[in-house]
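Hey Z.,

So I finally got round to the ribose-5-phosphate thing we talked about over coffee. Here's the setup:
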Amino acid sequence: MNFFYTTSTKHLANKIKTKKGKFILKKFGDGEIYVKILEKVKNKKVWVLASTQPPADNLLELFFLLDALKREQAKINLLITYFGYARQDRIERGEAFTSKLICSWLNNFNLNKIYIIHPHSQRLKNFLDYENLIPFELFSSVIKKAEVVVAPDKGALELVKKISGKYDVPYAYMEKFRPMPEKAKILKLVNGVKNKKVILVDDMISTGGTIIAASEKLEQEGAKEISVIATHGVFAGDAIKKIKKSSIEKVYVSDSLSQKRCPTKIKVIDLLKFIEKIIKS
Ligand code: R5P
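And the result:
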């Protein structure tokens, strides 16, 4: 069984021991993407590894790769390590329904199986049939040191309750409000953190607004030490700068997205074993 991958997951593909498929994925001089499968995949099970964060070429590479494999009649399992655009899963009048649209494109390929690593919310399930993989065991050694695990918003609460049960550690959660897109305000904290070592748990860090606002609230409430675990480190804009300046002790993210030049405060945890387990299943 071979696997194919888009440029956005090359950093992971390079580490994976499973045989790589033979294919060309390149750009012409004008920037157009070109894909060609160079081996027989008819009726064979293949894996495609991709992540769909901007730029849009990441999405296009995925669609073109799926199209080429489908035309060669491969049976395709898709593993999306980070589902970019998943946060556009609700609309107001006049807005494009972006995540639904991406799912409908994926549905057109009639894929054998789709796995997504820690998608933003379960709402995607309304549009796509996939298996949700949350690799929180990657962060076990960090979680084991926590005295309270905290959800910075209601979206993370279900996971935090699960972690709390599994590791037998108390949990707390916050109510978050977004006065405007990409701005986060914490309204209240439920359950105590005074003099405790706290781990904030989230699916992703994008602008860093959520974890910064949450850490400020935790500090006000007397938390002793604050660290963060998040599956995806998007680190948009000046997120890294904000984290460096904050009172957060350490931030742990996986390498679902390629991480370059991280300051010592940010620890990147390798997804390799987790991915290998899935693609060998
Ligand atoms: C909920 O909105 C999500 O689970 C994350 O909390 C959020 O996407 C993080 O984004 P940011 O870092 O921009 O606050």
